[in-house]
Specification:
Elements: H1 2-13, E1 18-24, E2 33-38, E3 43-48, E4 53-58, H2 63-71, E5 75-82, E6 85-91, E7 97-103, H3 106-122, H4 133-137, H5 152-169, E8 176-182, H6 188-200, E9 204-211, H7 214-227, E10 232-236, E11 250-257, H8 260-270, E12 275-281, H9 285-289, H10 297-300, H11 302-323, E13 326-334, E14 341-349, H12 355-372, H13 377-387
Length: 390
């Protein structure tokens, strides 16, 4: 073990692009391959079975010891590429390590870099070969878990959304999670999120999808029973004024039209939800209100006015969430209707927020309101709530 750990220290000291642990000693070993990649904070270990992938985050200082424990007595090969070198560890049946370093030709370095980038793009959380029934029913996967060629864009979009959630989930040791999905529609993504949380993250989830259409709710509940998703149910309900049966940990709202997104965000704030993931659409409200005080150029051309109003809408929403105690990001996200680029609002509840930070966030919104004559719905809801002591 000590010899193996020393070789791993040499590998990680060289700052490898990726480390692959492979060649299980026993054919019965469920995890066939392990990939280790550097993240912004620490490393992520991905363990691949025939049907699933399990992720684990490890601090920098623990990565060598953790990998050694995973490898020792289980795997016989380690490969890592760092710059122009390939590091290889071969382990005999008796556990003896043979460590060598190869210098790669420039052409191979270039090709290897290209392949690694390609593999990184394809290293999705929802892997081909996994048995994900909702993806089969929506035509993204074949019955044997292969991606349908014509649905590859949708497959990437779904994975992108799951990755955005995973960035927050991965660092937390969550065992239970209560989720509300507003305006769930046909709910295929709701099913996929439930699958990810319960099957891949092994979290005990209670999840409710809300929609206004009775036939949609009926079909979704039937599908949930078909998939055996016991913690997922669907109800008819309006985004505004819905009473939850539990404390809400996460709120998802995808393509809630115009001010429906504001009502969803407001409810999430009232419930003190720990995480909010929102993809707005159809932001008409501020477009109609927009009357610049001194920047008339932004309202002169219709397409510029429309795009600026949409961006301003989400910038104001983000600041108001910051004002309410959330760490908020606006992320580029391609929506599921194949529109051009869209924005996803990711907001995570944090502890005490300094008074000057809250005041600055609100002051920036007030300045935008004065310049353009905006009266955003979320701003009004928060004002009313504060007056009424909510």
């Amino acid at each position: 073990m000590e010899e193996l750990q020393n070789y791993l220290r040499l590998i990680f000291k060289s700052e490898p692009d990726r480390v692959i642990i492979s060649n299980p000693a026993a054919k019965s070993e469920p995890v066939k391959k392990i990939a280790v990649e550097k993240k912004k904070s620490g490393y992520q270990i991905a363990k691949y079975t025939g049907k699933q992938v399990f992720h684990e985050n490890v601090p920098d200082e623990d990565i060598c010891e953790r990998c050694a424990r995973l490898i020792f007595g289980v795997y016989r090969q380690v490969n890592a590429t760092a710059k122009d070198k390939e590091h290889i560890i071969l382990i005999s049946k008796k556990g003896i390590c043979n460590y060598k370093v190869k210098t790669l030709a420039k052409e191979l370095v270039k090709a290897d870099s290209s392949n690694q980038n390609h593999n990184r793009r394809k290293n999705y959380i929802l892997q081909e070969g996994m048995q994900i029934a909702p993806l089969v029913d929506m035509g993204v996967f074949t019955k044997d878990g292969k991606v349908v060629n014509s649905m590859y864009d949708k497959y990437k979009q779904i994975n992108r959304f799951i990755e955005i959630i995973d960035d927050e989930i991965a660092g937390k040791n969550l065992t239970k999670l209560n989720v509300i999905d507003f305006g769930c529609g046909k709910s295929y993504l709701t099913f996929v999120v439930y699958y990810y949380l319960t099957e891949l993250r092994k979290i005990d989830v209670q999840m409710i999808g809300l929609d206004l259409k009775e036939d949609v709710i009926r079909k979704c509940n039937a599908a949930s029973q078909k998939y055996g998703y016991k913690g997922l149910r669907f109800e008819m309900g309006d985004i505004n004024g819905y009473t939850t049966p539990f404390d809400v940990d996460m709120v998802i709202t995808l393509h809630a039209c115009d001010t429906a997104t504001d009502f969803a965000l407001y409810n999430a704030i009232l419930w003190n939800a720990g995480m909010i993931f929102s993809v707005p659409c159809c932001q008409h409200e501020l477009n109609k209100q927009m009357k610049p005080e001194s920047l008339q150029l932004l309202s002169r051309y219709g397409i510029i006015k429309e795009r600026f109003a949409a961006l301003a809408t989400d910038a104001i929403r983000a600041n108001l969430l910051e004002y309410c105690g959330y760490k908020t990001q606006l992320l580029e996200f391609v929506d599921f209707a194949h529109t051009p680029k869209n924005i996803l609002i990711r907001a995570v509840k944090r502890g005490m927020v300094p008074k000057h930070v809250r005041e600055r966030s609100l002051a920036e919104v007030e300045a935008m309101r004065r310049e353009f004559g905006f009266t955003p719905t979320l701003y009004q809801l928060l004002q009313i709530g504060e007056k009424e002591g909510i």
